[in-house]
Amino acid sequence: GAPDTRTPTGAETGVPKIAKGQQGAYLTTANGARLRDTDHSLKAGPRGPVLLQDHHLREKIMHFDHERIPERVVHARGAGAHGVFVANGAAEKVTRAGFLKKGRETPVFVRFSTVLGSRGSADTVRDTRGFATKFYTDEGTFDLVGNNMPVFFIQDAIKFPDIIHAGKPHPDREIPQAQSAHDTFWDFVSLHTEAQHHTIWNMSDRGIPRSYRTMEGFGVHTFRLVDDAGATVLVKFHWKPKLGVHSLEWEEAQLINGIDPDFHRRDLYDAIEAGAYPEWELGIQVFPDTPEETFAGIDLLDPTKIVPEELAPVQPIGTLTLNRTPRNFFAETEQVAFHLGHLPPGIDVTNDPLLQGRLFSYLDTQLTRLGGPNFPQIPINRPHADVNDMLRDGFHQQAVHAGVAPYRPNSLDGGNPFPAGDREHAFVDVPVTVAEAPKVRAAPASFDDHFSQVRLFWTSMSPVEKEHIVRAYTFELGKCYHQAIKERQLQCLANIDPVLCEQVATGLGLPAPQPTVPLAEVQPSPALSQVGREWPAD
Ligand code: HEM
């Protein structure tokens, strides 16, 4: 039959898949010459030596020697799946993005991951989970590169190498790994106290999900939506799992790590193969786009803060269903390249300094990880929208571009025009006013509150969730060698809640310190507890 020319996501490319050759009637070299024998090297007699002229041996070994590409610098371990996103139209009034119009169906690829472990690490470790979604919209790809926790450790991307160096294995022994990167991790988060909010989420049941299928997802940052008239709102994205939010008990997580280190990966694939397609509702919290970029006194540019759902309900805008496992892990899950700058018309960024730094980091790291600048041409990364990008050449160029050189203005071949009417379908950078201010390496004063929302989280937990949090802090801090680090983290816990501090201090056999900042007055937010978190009602 005709060769298969579609990408793994179903996009038509016109280019036959080379992989087809691996299913042919006979074996060949990479150049297509039929092989007589691929089991013996060419030797001077059956007892050798092997001849340097054995071009088949050299091709086979050369290719094998280069099978590995660098693993991701973070989020190295992951599992992916294909699916579809169906919009319910509720976002139409706030964004011009076509894929959010009522009834639109958009193919997606989702990759779930742990953050700190390497590619071969276990699934059920205590860690944040990545939840990255590629929407192949007909107006260009939209990547929502989120996590299963709504806040992040740092407020400024310039601190990302610091937090990751503190959490990854030590340079000398290459231990420890995952969240229990004890002395260095606790040293960093107790000194850099803006990390305390994300840390308590890690120490809670959210740090050991039951399944990828039972995790919430969050875009974390505030984004800006723009409608046809140019009006804007600020939003935060939320994924809510149909199966509700569920976690493992710590002891379960430990046993599963030993018995089945691929537990989450297997669970995702088995569910899809069995037809139990995982589903999430995508929702947005919507805030007025005011010059202050705050809501209810919360700075929307601070990625260590949430906006409680009681203050801004999550409004459902569509449903994601994962319904197909990858055919080839390397081609799809490993080579997929997410990037926050993949934005269709109708969705724009804000000045969140963490988001701004990420806009640089993803493309930059993928240049190395995927071997040059042409990774958008890898099948899993190809947009479903038409591409006419004026880029040329480079390592691993797959396209054979015709015509004169791509430059503008250009009178020779029509010159890469913007046809009449095209601009109204184009991406528009929202012309947000930039403050007239001196250049400074500084953060706004509103970023200084590092404890009130940590207290909000703790206060919102049920008794059993609090017990799990105390046990997690006690276990993880108990692994530190340096007493001064344990004491400094106990000081942070005292600033969050005296009962939390007292219980962890007792477990560690240390005295509980007094708070050094006034304890915040907070009303519990029931939506932060996992208890009763089920599929949102219609
Ligand atoms: C990878 C989420 C902050 C740099 C990832 C992935 C996710 C993610 C889900 C895995 C993508 C995949 O499956 O391929 C987040 C979230 C953040 C955050 C939610 C904060 C809100 C940052 C920051 C930086 C950064 C601040 C750097 C300044 C990276 C890099 C990768 C990565 C370099 C590897 C990408 C690749 O090799 O393809 N992140 N991240 N991230 N992240 Fe982040």
TrEMBL record:
Its EC number is 1.11.1.6. Its cofactor is heme. It catalyses: 2 H2O2 = O2 + 2 H2O. The keyword Metal-binding applies. GO terms for molecular function: catalase activity. Keywords: Heme, Hydrogen peroxide, Iron, Metal-binding, Oxidoreductase, Peroxidase. It comes from the Bacteria. Residues 28-416 form the Catalase core domain. Decomposes hydrogen peroxide into water and oxygen; serves to protect cells from the toxic effects of hydrogen peroxide. Belongs to the catalase family. HPII subfamily. This is Catalase. The lineage of its organism: Bacteria, Bacillati, Actinomycetota, Actinomycetes, Micromonosporales. The chain holds residues 57 to 594 of 753 of the full protein.
